[in-house]
Specification:
This protein is α/β, with parallel strands linked by helices. The protein has one domain: Rossmann fold. It has 12 helices and 10 strands. Helix 2 links the parallel strand 1 and strand 2. Helix 8 packs parallel to helix 9. The longest helix has 24 residues. The termini are far apart.
Length: about 350
Amino acid sequence: MLGLTALGLAILVAWDSATPADNSPPTMIALAILGDSSSHSYQDSLSFPPGSADRGGVFHARTFQWTEALARLRGHELNPGPWVRWGRADQIAWLRDLIGLHAGRTPRKEDYLYNFANSGATCRNLMGGPLQRHSQAPRLVELMDHDPGRWRNGVVVIRIGNNDWSALLDDQARDPRAPRVRAAAAYCAEQIAAAIRLIHAAHPKTRILLVGTDNEVNEPAIDKRYPAAAIANIQTAFDDFNAQLRELASTDARIAFFDLGAWFEGLWGRRAPDGTAAFKTVTIGGKLRVTNTVGDEPTNAELADHHGGLVWNALWAQSLVMRLREAFDLPLTPISDEEVARFVTTQ
């Protein structure tokens, strides 16, 4: 029995133990991501195999998520790590955690090394806990500890909460300050604060950008589900939650907030007071007209599976660079409108 136990431990230690190396210049600004499907790379062929209806459908090969757009437009300045197939099954990661070994990223996916976001993640996946699947922040910090010098000028983007929030949409519509709504907001804020403390305890100079949640009021067909009063309630709940994130960011110069709702309104506008759609059209390069509609063609802001489309993500990458410059004085080259136009029209 002892021999079998020892053999099992030896296999566990050896199982998928190699952490991919990052051979990029240390002068590049390291960029890590904690989050959900909003930040899980679309070209992950393990999660979204060719021919899948997800993440662009027939346009999948030319549909990129924001980290993929950013790597293509500013990959010489921002470093999300090499593109790798890496990670461990939940059971193996849990067992390695149990005996004090580096667990690595879970689940296994094809993505940038420092991207720990995974589809379906909720705020409980940030810190995890006993028997918790996909705990992101502790495993990212383990990886950061391998090369701490790289993170003295690094950035961690935390963009999570959409799955917690969208699950309570009916509650928000009835009462934006209902106990379940307030509890979910408080829990997410607590988990995000805990992740920040964990990162800064090990890497005190690392900057952290908190991204607000997607505003469900901007969903193209939400007015077919809810009357104007309910839509106003959802907006109030959204504002309350983002106020908590904004307050959290204001406590420390190493933390900044990205207002995703304001970003969307600056491009596509907002609903009319009666809740009906009154969105604008965004024109790219003088030719490509992008509306706040759903579909896999690049003329839609959202994909058919309701994730951000190619133009959405390219424009968000452009704004993210500007926010990192403004908030942390990072030496990043702004992404011009012309670059965005070339990127989205030549894919």
